[in-house]
Amino acid sequence: MTTNGAGGIWVVAEQVAGRINSVSYELLNKAQQLKNQLQKPEPVVAVILGKGAEGLEQLSNYGAEEIITVFAEELEIYQNDLYVAVLQALIEEKKPSIVLIGATAIGQDLAPMLGARLKTGVAAHCVDVRINENNQMVAVVPAFGGKVLGDILCPNTSPQMATLKPGVLGKPVPLEKPAAVVTAFDPSAVLQEDQGRIKALEIVREEQTGVPLEEAEVIVAGGWGIGSRENWDLVEELARLLGGAVGCTRPVVDEQWVQSEQQMIGTSGKSVRPKVYLAFGISGATHHLCGMKDSGLVISVNKDATAPIFEASDVRIVGDARTILTALIKRIKG
Ligand SMILES: Cc1cc2nc3c(=O)[nH]c(=O)nc-3n(C[C@H](O)[C@H](O)[C@H](O)COP(=O)(O)OP(=O)(O)OC[C@H]3O[C@@H](n4cnc5c(N)ncnc54)[C@H](O)[C@@H]3O)c2cc1C
Prior knowledge:
This protein is α/β, with parallel strands linked by helices. It has helices at 23-37, 56-61, 80-94, 105-117, 188-193, 229-242, 250-254, 286-292, 321-333; strands at residues 9-13, 15-16, 19-20, 44-50, 66-71, 98-102, 122-126, 128-131, 137-143, 148-152, 160-164, 181-184, 218-222, 245-248, 276-280, 297-302, 315-318. The chain has two domains: 9-193, HUPs (Rossmann fold, 3-Layer(aba) Sandwich), CATH 3.40.50; 213-333, 3-Layer(aba) Sandwich (Rossmann fold), CATH 3.40.50.1220.
């Protein structure tokens, strides 16, 4: 699409098994903020695809003024080509100027293909969006290994699209506003044309062991400074003793000291808000800080007194991670 959008700030609301993902509410809150920053406010619209969804009124409570439902049997489980075809048709017809999508597993798969079909840009993994003095959306993305925050604009094509990580915008708040108008879009013509090359058959959930990161009150996180797989056992032991969850940075995933990328915290990982966050051997790159900045008490251990993590910490310990982990474990065990 190369024409200017006729208007509307759209949020692609995500549902799995009929349950709406809370990132949709975070994006709707943000869409309302964007609306207030625009020189000429545009309506905030939630679009939801699926077979049906529970609690549509929640989309209204968090900021949707209009809800477009696109319900069909074929859309029950997310499928890239079908969802892209339907959204493309809808966006080409209604011409929103902004489209926000959660940077979830589904959103990260959907957004680039949709952007390519619409011949417009997508700013991925943003940590914020705002409207500038030229009435354009500015997408804020960590750059250069997370050392700086870059502003991305999409001035020549429409819609302006961005994906935002769940949790980076903070806890969504219900807004006092009139109930949204709900309209239905019939996707049958698009679905007949585009039958989809792949068919998703069912959703199988991975079994989780231990305390889930998102729910943990205490997180013991380690970074590259832990030094070895052997030392990593100390991080896990301390987390166990404190009844907490284990988090990590990107290099720890790359080194395979943890079993799953699900333990990574940051822009490409999870956003967490524990009461206590203990960081061992973590430098504090923006990509990581973005995922833990809303933690309560942050205690960091780093051998480098100038490590950026210390700027985001309440308690700063300059020292060797292994030595301090060992001492803490010994003390707790008595
Ligand atoms: C697009 C993109 C997305 C990314 N997403 C993420 C993400 O989601 N999450 C994430 O974490 N990273 C992410 N990264 C990587 C990120 O930019 C950093 O490279 C990473 O967070 C650094 O991890 P670290 O702090 O463990 O390692 P380093 O930056 O190498 O820091 C290691 C720290 O350990 C300290 N240290 C060394 N030895 C010891 C010791 N014996 N005792 C105590 N301290 C010691 C050092 O002083 C140093 O500060 C992303 C990068 C890109 C480009």
